Each structure stands twice: as structure tokens, then as C-alpha cells.
Amino acid sequence: MNLAINIDELREARISLTGKVGLVPTMGYLHEGHLSLIRQAKAECEHVILTIFVNPTQFGANEDLSKYPRDMERDLALVKPLGVDLVWTPSAEIMYPTGYQTWVEVEAVSYPLEGANRPGHFKGVATVVAKLFNVTQPDKAYFGQKDAQQVAVIRRMAVDLNFPLDVVVCPTVREADGLAMSSRNKYLEGEYRKAAGVLFKALSAAKLLYEGGERSGEVLKGKMKEVLANEPLAELQYVSCADYDTLKELAIVKGKTLLSMAVLIGKTRLIDNFVLG
Ligand code: AMP
Fold first, then answer.
1. For ligand 1, is residue 170 a contact (CB within 6 Å)?
2. How far is the CA of 41 from the centre of ligand 1 (A)?
3. What CA–CA distances, in Å, run from 136 to 31, 86, 150, 243?
4. How far apart are CA 30 and CA 182, in angstroms?
């Protein structure tokens, strides 16, 4: 397993990788969700590049950038047995050197949901992913369905900016009670960890209605709100029933649909989603 920090090191190591290359971008503090992306990349490509970079430009001023969990030694030990060829861990100064002033903004699909609650977030995400694509030149790039709007933004960007690669979307890996794995779950302790299962319960209840034939977006959202309201430690930020690609809210569910939500459990902000249809 090769390690690169600066861009010259990465480029030099990349040249020696012949055949299909899969890229798995992460912010580290790896868990089984990240590892599932690496395993899928490994199964579909000759070589895998993993990036670990806590991207400052996707964090808002009052978000948890400085407190975001980091443990490089543990991360490297976790991925070593998976056969990753190259790990790139650039610093913020390498990604955004003095004088930096170029940004990627994906428009409509960035605006609702997470975009509305975290202004500037997807500008930071799209910019860093475009840079990762440019430097690592992958044939396939792997992202988790867990971050559904990120997937929609990156798929749009890859088409719009003519990146010659496939964006591969991998299923959400969950804990036994259904909680989607996330580096931020580390913040959840005791009763808060228990309460966090309510996101999965709310999504499951709405899915059950859908499977029974319900197609009203309002009714499906109402069900999610009802379940969330029964958990006193959960504070709802939004629930959504939207078109999978455009993220436009749907009055009537038709075709591939995204049920999604953001919920505060104490101070920890969690997101989750199910795909219907
Ligand atoms: P992050 O380190 O949170 O930026 O995540 C890196 C990648 O892992 C993103 O594509 C995420 O969507 C994906 N990911 C995070 N959590 C999960 C999960 N529970 N299941 C599947 N993929 C995930």
C-alpha cells in the first residue's frame, strides 16, 4: 500500500497503476460503510485509490470541522488488509494553497434539503471532488447512498463537466438497529445512541405505507414526522419526499423517489434516507 501526501507523489504513484482505477473519497475515521465502498471498488477495478481528507470548505462556520473525528493510524490499519493500492492524505494547504480562488457550483440540485440547511456545503463538496477526480484520474468513483444529495450533486457535476468516469452508488451500511453508520455516530452516547434509531423507524414506517399503495408525498412525510415526534430526544430539521435525481418535492410519488430527513439527536445532526421505486 503506497502512501502519498503531496500532489507530485500522488501523480507519480498513479502513473504506475495500469488498468481500471477506482477512487473512494472519504474524510477518514473509517467505518464499515467506508470499507464497503472500498470492497466494491476492489471487486470492480484493478486498482483502488483511497483519499482521506477532512475538507474544510464543506463545513459551515458553526459546524464541527475542528472537532471532526480523526485517527489516521487506525484508518490505515483498517484498509491495509483490503488491498488498497494507494492512499492519498493531502493537507488543507496542498488542496487550497495561498491564493486559491476556483470553485465548482452545481446549481438547482444543491439548493434544497442539506443545501438549504448548510449554505455553501455542496460548493465545497463539488469543488473538492472535482479536484480529487482531476488529480487521481479514476475510471470509477464510489459514493454511499447514505449521502443521497451528495450523490445527486456529484452525478450532475460529472455529466456537466465531462469527467470521463462512472459514478457508482453503494448501499447504506447500517447498525443492528438500523442506524446508518457515520463517523459522527461517535458523538452519540447512552440514551442519545438509543434515540438515534428513530430515523430508521420513521423511514421504515413511511416505506410500509408506500408498499401498501400510498402515493401522497404529504402522507408519507406526515408518517415520518409522526414517528419522529414520538422520540423526545429527536428534533426534526426536515423531512422530504422528492424525485431521486432532481430532488424536487413530489405531491404524488412516481418513479424513483427519495425519502430523506435530517434530525438533531441532542447536538448531533444525523441524516438518512430510503430510495423507493
Ligand atoms: P465521509 O467520510 O462521511 O465523507 O464518507 C465518505 C464516503 O462514504 C461517502 O461517499 C459516504 O456517502 C460514504 N458513506 C458514509 N457512511 C456510509 C454508510 N453508512 N454506508 C455506505 N456508505 C457510506
1. yes
2. 14
3. 23, 10, 19, 31
4. 9
23 vs 132: CA distance, rounded Å = 9
Rounded Cα gap, residues 122 and 28, in angstroms = 19
Does residue 132 line the site of ligand 1, with CB under 6 A?
no
Judge whether 34 counts as a catalytic residue. yes
Check if 143 has its Cβ closer than 6 Å to any atom of ligand 1.
Answer: yes
Residue from 51, 147, 157 to probe ligand 1 pocket by mutation (most atoms less than 8 Å from CB):
147
Residue 143 alpha carbon, nearest atom of ligand 1: 10
Residue 260: per-residue pLDDT: 99
Residue 149 CB–ligand 1 contact under 6 Å: no
Residue with the nearest Cα to atom 12 of ligand 1?
Answer: 144
Res 274: pLDDT: 98
> Can you tell me the mean pLDDT for 22-35?
98
H/E run at residue 21:
strand 21-26
- Sketch out the chain's domains with CATH numbers: 2-170 (3.40.50.620), 183-276 (3.30.1300.10)
